[in-house]
Amino acid sequence: MANLNASSNRPLSPHLSIYKPIPTMVMSIIHRITGAALYFGTILVAWWLISAASSEAYFEWVNGFFGSFIGRLILFGYTWALVHHMLGGIRHLVWDTGRGLEKETATKLAYATISASIVITVILWVIGYAVN
Question: Virtual CA dihedral for 40, 42, 46, 48, nearest 10 degrees?
């Protein structure tokens, strides 16, 4: 009689612990995470707009929250997620043209995405504090 357990002869599928994280893989994961963060961060923008339409006292309370250390940390993270997701999207647009798909170029673009997103976020916050 034939062996009914055919799955015992099949090779095991590679697991995440086998793969070495490469920059493009990490940027893909971060791009997805920042997309989800932007989804939930937009709820904060809606909360701020609703508070502005509700009452002056509630608007002051929400502004007080966003002006606190935790609020500013959340807003800084939201700004970084927005910039990083935008730059990741631009990187994908470049790839859609067939450019930058070589391993070395894709790795350089991944490092450039993370570096530029941090630099641009800090610049935006410095400008924000300068004009305030």
Answer: 100
